[in-house]
């Protein structure tokens, strides 16, 4: 028993200086404190964050969500057992009573659910990853480094949101980060040479933002050159989070890319060209978030990982729909998209049981809280996306270094599809 004795929320700021919640859950035997991340490039079907509106913080304040935790959720949960995560998450959903968690706020629910999880781990006196994954937690995640940013995450002209490098051919997480860091430095040198020093400005996730660049092929080309300069061709593949919903025009049913309009078929042909020209192993949200049929066509056509982010929004029922349709073959997992830990864990487990890969992901608005790293390891997700530079990102890497050092049995996956060494 880890009887909850108190739950309280406060308003803090994330890495964008925007308000978010920090929730503290106290039990008789341990305390948990969790920060809530926040997305910018959000899916239409995500749990809704409650924002105060008005002038304070340009409407982004979370005082109402804080009150919902302190005045509505806390009284209902005090006295309950923090070890009963699933019961508590069910209670949170029923207290909220809406499909999209808009009454109490997806941000309020996420904070409490994660706070309970961390309090339970503290009360058992085990690391968070071990509480999540028990004896089976062993797979370090392959990190996806968003070295060149575009879309909603940067002030440039690239429509694709993330142009990533992925260290798949190394033996450890520490080597994965070291080699990726070297590629990042070398890419910086090449970008400066070709696009000038301003290309080294970074976006929300700490990747470069060469504003002149508008063709994703230029981004992949220069990333590949950096990899080749270092002789790391066997260690790296490329990947992208296209975030296609954000340059899709639903009235015209076209995608605006490089000053042109692409039909779904033309965009699929473009992916064909991209994946045959570059060593691209993974595409996230290559089509807009309601196009399950297009995702299926693309998944059948290309021999790469196809990840659903805005498509699935970490929601078990949207994921099931996708699995039934054969749409995508991987899930992007963001706890605050769905609003409770147990729904997120359900999504991960449905994915794995159906042969879908799982990539645990940050949001572009983060804090230094490292529950994300523990979640990725605890779930044996096998993949993580947590940005490049800036402490709210690097703290996740530092946490994973520590896990790798402390656990002899921890292993780095041999490829994207398998978390088993
Ligand atoms: P977000 O974007 O965190 O701003 O929603 C990241 C992503 O699309 O994966
Ligand atoms: Zn995405």
Question: What's the SSE blueprint?
Answer:
Elements: E1 4-13, E2 19-27, E3 31-35, H1 63-77, H2 85-96, H3 106-124, H4 128-133, E4 142-149, E5 162-167, H5 173-195, H6 216-229, E6 236-241, E7 248-249, E8 254-257, E9 260-262, H7 264-277, E10 280-284, H8 292-301, E11 305-308, H9 316-325, E12 330-333, H10 335-338, H11 341-353, E13 357-361, H12 371-378, E14 382-385, H13 391-406
Parallel strand pairs: 4-14, 6-10, 10-11, 11-12, 12-13, 13-14
Antiparallel strand pairs: 1-2, 2-3, 4-5, 5-6, 7-8, 8-9
Helix pairs in contact: 1-2, 1-3, 2-3, 5-6, 9-11, 12-13
Bound molecules: 2-phosphoglycolic acid (PGA) and zinc ion.
What does this structure look like?
The structure is a single chain. The chain is α/β, with parallel strands linked by helices. It folds into 2 domains: 4-125, Enolase-like, domain 1 (2-Layer Sandwich), CATH 3.30.390.10; 134-419, Enolase-like C-terminal domain (TIM Barrel, Alpha-Beta Barrel), CATH 3.20.20.120. It is built from 13 helices and 14 strands. It has helices spanning 63-77, 85-96, 106-124, 128-133, 173-195, 216-229, 264-277, 292-301, 316-325, 335-338, 341-353, 371-378, 391-406, and strands at 4-13, 19-27, 31-35, 142-149, 162-167, 236-241, 248-249, 254-257, 260-262, 280-284, 305-308, 330-333, 357-361, 382-385. It has an 8-stranded mixed barrel, surrounded by 6 helices. A 3-stranded antiparallel β-sheet has the order 1-2-3. It has a 3-stranded antiparallel β-sheet with strand order 7-8-9. The protein is globular and about 60 Å long. The two termini are 36 Å apart. Bound molecules: 2-phosphoglycolic acid (PGA) and zinc ion (ZN). Zinc ion (ZN) binds at residues 241, 243, 284-285, 309. 2-phosphoglycolic acid (PGA) binds at residues 39-42, 161, 241, 243, 309, 361, 363-364.
